[in-house]
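The instructor's notes for this session suggest beginning with a concrete chain rather than abstract definitions. Hand out the sequence below and ask the class to guess, before any prediction is shown, which regions might be ordered.
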Amino acid sequence: MARDSETATAVVQGAVRLVTLAPAKVNLVLRVGPARADGYHEILSLMAPLDLGDRVEVRVSTRDGPITCAVPGFPELDGDANLAARAARAFREALGLSRGVAIRIEKRTPVTAGLGGGSSDAAAVLRCLARAFPVAPAALARIGLSVGSDVPFFLGKGPAWAGGRGERLRPASVPPLDLVLLYPEDPRLAIRAGDAYRWLDRARDGTAIRPLGRAHPFRASLVGNDLQGACVAQHPALLPLLGLLVGQGATAAIMSGSGPTVFGVFPSRRAARGAARAIEAQRAPRLRVLLARTVGRQPRVTPWRSPRSASSRSTKRS
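After discussion, reveal the predicted structure:
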């Protein structure tokens, strides 16, 4: 990526340690248009962050050095291939930096679950680095998009309608929604986003694709996911999970993103807790049951602590 040096307004000289949360998200609405010439699909999606997420710590060295990424308990996520490490690399390249960066992620969001965990981790790293090396929001969004289509959403302020391939964001108002998420841990049910879109294209072959529509104020009748039918056709085991949620009183139950996590919207926290307990009591094998609530804004980055200055800008929050 070309250096974006003119976006940097300051550089911190001392060592930096920053911590933030990387929230999961759900797609309350996901409409998918035809494939574009670049291989992506036009989408219209209403996304909302959750009070469920990973804890991300970023340490910036005083010296030049490598980018490292550790995810305790998930050795397969360690290293350069992690989106969080790729985000740090893209940030350094854009600003012409070479300081060492060490990333540590406490993983709480299920992996390859349709909940945006990897993209949120990447955005969390970018938000931390942008705190240490201030950069224009537009430039940060460009860096994020180069890492993944969902990353710009997690760099935003909160719930949003996403268009294009996910980079065109329009803030949305979503009330606090109480959710029960069901994540099947059977690796045979894991779904890569590229596969989900390919299955949808194959299912649509020769049929007319309805217009994506436009952003609307949130209402329960909008809830839906165009990828769901094609993914359930490939993995019929997902259908009973949707039935479990409806059977426990969910007012709507759909797959999030490219799955395989499905979630139900419940009328209250009490109703959601009761549903979660009832589903857990059925002891379905390899099924993770999670309670979550949509939130109205992305988490903040904690103030940094620089050993070179006790009167740094650490009283500010970004």
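Then share the key points. The domain at 178-293 is CATH 3.30.70.890 (Alpha-Beta Plaits). Residues 69 and 162 are 29 Å apart (CA to CA).
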